[in-house]
Every structure is written in structure tokens, then in C-alpha cells.
Amino acid sequence: MITRREFVTTLSVALLAPAAWGDSKASKIPLAFSTLGCPEWDWKKILGFASTHGFSAIELRGLMGKLDLPSDPLFAADRIQQTKQQIQAANLKIACVSSSAQMYVEDPTKRAEELSNAKGFVDLAQVLGAPYVRVFGGKADSDKSPVPDDATKARVAAGLRELGKYAGPRDVTVIIESHDHFTASSSLKDVLTQADSEHVGLLWDAHHTFATANEDPEFTVKQLGPWIRHTHLKDSVGSGEDRKYVLTGRGNVPIRRQIEALRSIGYKGFYCFEWEKLWHPDIDDPEIAIADYAHVVGDCLGNAKACGR
């Protein structure tokens, strides 16, 4: 297994070409983290921690453990302008507004609810000036097949297409995450091609395509690169269902190669840390894990001296 020092050193060598990020003094490193990782932090702590640790953006995935973001008081009509001012004052952006909407659903009533939920998140993203809203392909509990069938892929594609039509005029793009039943490049490529919308893209959860679909990052990016708009990075040890999340660089997920693969296609989005603390309360606390990610990945992206330790 690669050591932590080796991870930092090799990442720095690969990523610190002079033209990689332009003038580092003129722009912040494109680093983000998802609020899924800090379910007990209030809004003030989220913004303060992000700013202090050199993040450029945050991905909104619940606040104080509650996932229904459009109904959060922070985003109420009489409060949202203040919220936007606080984001700006912290010199941050909203990288993505992440919903739980699932596009596989077949029942007409439940499907309408999923689409309505996603549209509510699109409306919120528009007001916040966030470029993306995440949705899932999803999978029914009764579906035991290893990959989605053609009918499921067609429903997912149709849902993405409908949301793309809604999101486009609002200057928002809907992105499906590589997750659940949709971790293999072939399945994702099918639905993204069928969706056929410039306002639909991919959130590449690089952990899932590697750990679940057993794909090398170079292969995934070659197949799906034109659709990648946002990404989730995280590390783990083990294999299959026995994987356990660990601090960045201490596992066996090829994060350095994932970043290099993104750079090879001129990726301009955020490198977002998704620490699943809400779902796995036993993993390291966010004060440790998020700060650690900022050091190991963030410093190596833009600070040669830090990477030389």
C-alpha cells in the first residue's frame, strides 16, 4: 500500500506543472467539500472552516443532518439574500446543490414526486448561483440484477431529459452521480447519451466506479469524460461490501490517478471531498478528515513547499 508521504510526493510531482492552475496568487485552488461530512456543523462553522482551510467551494448536501435543503430557513425568501452575502463574504462558491431524487422510479405518482423534488433543488441552485444539481439513477430494493435493464435506463434518461429542459433556462445543469445501480461506465454512457441534453451531465464519484464497478480511472474518464462536470473523491481500504472509509492517502483508492485522469481532459470543476459522516458516524470527525483532505490534496495542487514535506 502506498504510504501517506509517498502519496503526497507523487501527487505533487504530477500536478504542479506551471500551467496547471495558472497564477496561484490570482485564484484559489479548486477544492470543495460536501456538507454530508459535517452533519452537526451549523452554517457559520461550515463557512468559517471552509474559508480557514483554503477551500474554494462547498457542496450543499443537507444542513444539520436535514436533507431537504429547499425548506431550510437559511434559504427562505426573507433570509436567502443574507445567506448569499455570507457565502460571498467567505470568498466561497456553491459547487453543487445535491438532492436525493431518484430517476429510476416507475410509479407515475411517485415519479412525479421525485421530479418535483429535483426541480425544487434546481430552483434553489438558480437563486444561489450554483451551477449543478445532483440526482441519482437509483435502484429499487426488489431489483436484484447486477446492472440496470434497458427499461430502467430509459426511465432514468427520460427523467434527466425532463430535468435538463427545466434546468437549462435557469442556468443550471442536472448531474447524475455514479452511484447505486449506475456505477459502470457502460450504464452511465447509455443514459447520458439517451438524455441527449446539454444541461445534463455527470457527477463522477470516482470511489464508486473504482470500488464498485472495478474500473480504472483512466478507463472511466475515457468513456465518460465529455459529461463530467463535478466529482467526489474519497479513500477507503478493503474490498467489496467490506470497504471502510479512511483518511485521504491511507487507503487503496487511486486518488492521484483519478486526479491525473481529470487533468488529462482539461477538467475545470472542483475536486470535492465527500466524507460520508452522516451515513457512517463511526468514521473520523469532520474537523480531522476535511482538514486532512485540504492538506493532502489541496496543498499538493497548489503549494510545492507543502508537498515537499
From TrEMBL:
Residues 49-278 form the Xylose isomerase-like TIM barrel domain. Pfam families: AP_endonuc_2. InterPro entries: IolE/XylAMocC-like, Xyl_isomerase-like_sf, Xyl_isomerase-like_TIM-brl. One of its GO terms (molecular function) is isomerase activity. Keywords: Isomerase. The keyword Isomerase applies. This is Xylose isomerase domain-containing protein TIM barrel.
